[in-house]
From TrEMBL:
Stretches of the chain forming a coiled coil according to its record: none
Record domain Thioesterase: where: 24-104
Keyword Transit peptide appears in the UniProt entry: no
Keywords: Hydrolase
Protein name: 4-hydroxybenzoyl-CoA thioesterase
Amino acid sequence: MRAQNGVQPFVHRCRVYYEDTDAGGIVYYVNYLKFMERARTERLRDLGFAQSTLAGEGLLFVVHSSEARYHAPARLDDELLVSAEVIELNRVSLRFRQQVRRVADDVLLCEGQFLVACVGADNLKPRAIPQTLRSAFADLGGAGTSGKAGE
């Protein structure tokens, strides 16, 4: 994966298993979304924030919207690198840009953007992202911030 602005993007390594493939032997399209979800979760963990701990503190992250483009198929036993880069940090949401690449040849297989909202676990209403988490993402230098009301 290429560095952007001198910051090495976060990547999660995974492998394609039989359960990930369709009858044609290629990764079923929705499984790319699962790979990207795991990379976002591991990104948070890498920053010191386990989703289970955040949930215990009454905070959840939910996908508000997603966009994916498919370029080439992954197949059984392929090793993949899945990036998770925060490109926008707002008061109650994060926008991730993600790519799935095959390790063997660095071919871009799938890419997408995901708007992830922070909500209260008790009522699922928007909630401000805790300052410690905002600071962790801001310290990466790759995320732009927005001061838009309601975001």
